[in-house]
Write a structure and sequence with these properties.
The protein is an alpha/beta fold. Helix content is 31%, strand content 22%.
Length: 208
C-alpha cells in the first residue's frame, strides 16, 4: 500500500463490491449493453492477447474479454470488488494489489494491452498518479497499448471536481515513454473535442 487512501476507498469505505455488482445487474435487466469497454479493447487486439485489467473492480470487463478468447489478469486494491470477481469467474487470475506498486506483484511485463477503465486514474490516491502511469507502462510489451477511460468534469465523476486534467495525464504518459495514438469521447468511438467531459485514450509503447 502507498500509505495514503485512494479516492475510491474514501467514497466506498472499501465495501463497494456488492453494490457495484448490483448496479450493473440492474443495467443488464433494463436492456443496457454493459460491454462497451470490452468491445473497444477487443477491436484493438489480436486473438488470445494478454490483457491486464488494472483497477478491474468486479471483473466485468476482464471476464468479457476472457469470453472473447483473451488471457486476462485483473488487479484491484479493493478486496470487496475482487470477491465478486472471484465468485463470478473463479478460474481467472485476480490479484490484490496497489497499482502504484504493481511491480511488487512480479507480473511478467509483456502485456499486449493494459486497461484502466471506470475512472481508475482520477480515483487513485492523490499524488500517486504519475507512479501508477509509469507502472502500467512498464507492464506493456514493446508496441503494447495502454487504454484508459476517465471523466474530466463533475458530471462524469463521483467527485465534486476533477482531480487532474487531460494535459497532466498526457504528460505523465509521455514521461513514462508512451505516445498518444487515439482519443475518443466514448467507448463507442465518438470523436473527442477539446473541453469534453470524458476521454477514452489509447497510448502505446515504442515498438522497440
Amino acid at each position: 500500500m502507498t500509505g495514503q487512501q485512494d479516492r475510491w476507498a474514501e467514497l466506498t469505505g472499501g465495501q463497494g463490491g456488492e453494490a457495484y455488482a448490483r448496479r450493473f445487474a440492474r443495467l443488464v435487466e433494463s436492456g443496457h449493453d454493459i460491454h462497451g469497454e470490452a468491445a473497444f479493447c477487443a477491436a484493438l487486439l489480436e486473438p488470445a492477447a494478454r490483457v491486464l485489467d488494472a483497477g478491474c473492480g468486479t471483473g466485468r470487463i476482464a471476464i468479457r474479454l476472457a469470453e472473447l478468447g483473451h488471457r486476462c489478469t485483473g488487479v484491484d486494491v479493493d478486496p470487496s470488488m475482487l470477491a465478486v470477481a472471484r465468485r463470478d469467474a473463479p478460474a481467472q487470475e485476480w490479484l490484490l494489489g496497489d497499482l502504484a506498486r504493481l511491480d511488487a506483484l512480479d507480473l511478467d511485463p509483456e502485456y499486449d494491452l493494459v486497461l484502466a477503465a471506470g475512472n481508475v486514474i482520477p480515483l487513485l490516491a492523490p499524488g500517486t498518479e504519475p507512479d501508477v502511469v509509469r507502472q502500467l507502462a512498464g507492464a506493456l510489451r514493446p508496441a503494447g497499448l495502454l487504454v484508459t477511460g476517465m471523466g474530466l468534469d463533475a458530471a462524469h465523476l463521483p467527485l465534486p471536481e476533477p482531480p487532474l486534467t487531460l494535459g497532466e495525464f498526457d504528460d505523465w504518459c509521455a514521461r513514462a515513454g508512451l505516445t498518444l495514438r487515439h482519443r475518443y469521447a466514448t467507448w463507442s468511438g465518438d470523436p473527442y473535442h477539446d473541453g469534453g467531459g470524458y476521454a477514452v485514450s489509447v497510448h502505446s509503447r515504442p515498438a522497440g
